[in-house]
Design brief:
The chain is of the alpha/beta class. The chain has helices at 28-35, 106-112, 125-138, 159-170, and strands at residues 2-8, 41-47, 83-87, 115-123, 142-151, 173-175. The protein has a single domain (2-179), classed as Rossmann fold (3-Layer(aba) Sandwich), CATH 3.40.50. The protein has four helices and six strands. A six-stranded parallel sheet has the order 3-2-1-4-5-6. Strand 5, helix 4 and strand 6 form a beta-alpha-beta unit.
Length: 180
């Protein structure tokens, strides 16, 4: 039985200055870097959108495959990542959840590697983190959300609090990094 850290979408376009920059999105990097050595596996997801996708009808163009905006934040210790998931690669799909990765069946990977506990951090609380956490819970995985290692889009004021409440009600455990 193993525990894994899932780093969701800590990419340039989601950090300040990016095309869909999240307030304080870059501040999660230091916390995440400090967590990596506490886990059996470190996994990341990346939005990896095609140039044209229905997703961009809802959002500004961001994280286009192969662009600098789709790359990890430069301060993220990406050398410590064991598996990189690509999601949102279909032009007809949003790909919010890491479990929608197109390069590997993430749920099967966790099962094959005997991962029973998943800690989730990254960007954004109210979309990709939330959807990944809800999918994790639905698969029977003990799921923790690291609250000081996430940041929200907050398209609507309070979306972050609503997302945290939804994750908590679904069975996710909310935890701070100091308690891991």
């Amino acid at each position: 039985m193993k525990k894994a850290l899932l780093i969701v979408d800590v990419q340039n376009d989601f950090c300040p200055g990016g095309s869909l920059g999240v307030k304080d999105g870059d501040k999660v990097v230091e916390v995440i870097n400090g967590l990596m050595d506490k886990f059996d596996l470190v996994i990341s997801s990346q939005d990896w959108h095609p140039e044209e996708t229905v997703h961009f009808e809802k959002w500004p163009v961001h994280c286009v495959a192969g662009t600098s905006g789709a790359e990890f934040h430069p301060s993220l210790n990406s050398n410590n990542i064991d598996l990189r998931l690509k999601k949102g690669t279909d032009n007809k799909d949003d790909g919010y959840s890491a479990f929608e990765a197109t390069n590997i069946n993430f749920g099967e990977y966790l099962n094959n590697n005997r991962v029973t506990t998943l800690y989730i951090c990254g960007l954004t609380t109210d979309y990709c983190v939330k959807e990944s956490a809800l999918d994790s819970i639905s698969k029977g995985i003990h799921t923790y959300v690291v609250t000081d290692a996430i940041a929200a889009v907050n398209a609507k004021q309070g979306d972050d609090k609503e997302a945290l409440n939804e994750m908590y009600k679904s069975g996710c455990i909310l935890v701070e990094s100091k308690d891991i």
